[in-house]
Write a structure and sequence with these properties.
The chain is an alpha/beta fold and about 230 residues long. It contains 8 helices and 8 strands.
Length: about 230
């Protein structure tokens, strides 16, 4: 598993009629992972895409697909998203009654397994599961919509998680999603983040490739000062 710093453009913020072109634009800027937000209108107040779209994205690109399931009953759909071509699948702690079993389901399939927590969910709720996951996603906005403002206290949660990672000698990746821009990406990296999801910040800019390059540069510079 790689702990390399990455900027992940979120396809939710792209032009859905031109997904292939939109992916190619950010690939030219150095993006190596595409973040795919899946919403069901129940766990979050929005509906986005399902396995058929992920399958289409898989045909359109060789970049890694980081699929974030903001859905209820994720166990029912995980196999479909894996079959569609997801490289990383992340479920929400808040949506899983039996999180250990869900993580085991993903790991058995050979895909990387991630778990996400919402802004108000304590890091401690993940204590037992940390040795089993490849990635933990800290939501820095309340999930459901793009374009929201970054919630600053979520960086404290990143720091807590990073301390646990170091103290326990674990190697899971820390991802953050929501309101990340060139103005705060360095703060996120210094707090302990490895993967930064950027939606409107990338696809809302006139030149998505240049925006990926800028955020990547700022993130790499911040990494040099990370304790």
């Amino acid at each position: 598993m790689s702990r390399q710093i990455e900027i992940l453009p979120s396809i939710l913020s792209a032009d859905m009629a031109r997904f292939g072109e939109e992916i190619e634009r950010v690939k030219q800027g150095g993006a190596r992972v595409i973040h795919v937000d899946v919403m069901d209108g129940h766990f979050v107040p929005n509906i986005s895409i399902g396995p058929p779209v992920v399958k289409s994205l898989r045909r359109a690109t060789d970049l890694l697909l980081d699929v974030h399931l903001m859905i209820e009953n994720p166990d029912l759909y995980i196999p479909e998203f894996i079959a569609a071509g997801a490289d990383v699948v992340t479920v929400h702690q808040e949506a899983c009654r039996h999180l250990d079993r869900t993580i085991s389901l993903m790991r058995a399939s050979g895909t990387e397994a991630g778990v996400a927590i919402n802004p108000a969910t304590p890091v401690e709720t993940l204590s037992e599961i940390l040795p089993l996951v490849d990635m933990v996603l800290i939501m820095s906005v309340n999930p459901g919509f793009g374009g929201q403002k970054f919630i600053p206290y979520t960086l404290d949660k990143v720091r807590q998680l990073d301390r646990k990672r170091q103290e326990r000698g674990l190697d899971f990746r820390i991802e953050i999603d929501g309101g990340l821009t060139p103005d705060n990406v360095a703060d996120a990296i210094r707090a302990g983040v490895d993967w930064v999801v950027a939606g409107n910040s990338v696809y809302g800019s006139p030149d998505p490739a240049s925006r990926v390059q800028l955020m990547s540069r700022l993130a790499q510079e911040a990494m040099l000062t990370r304790a």
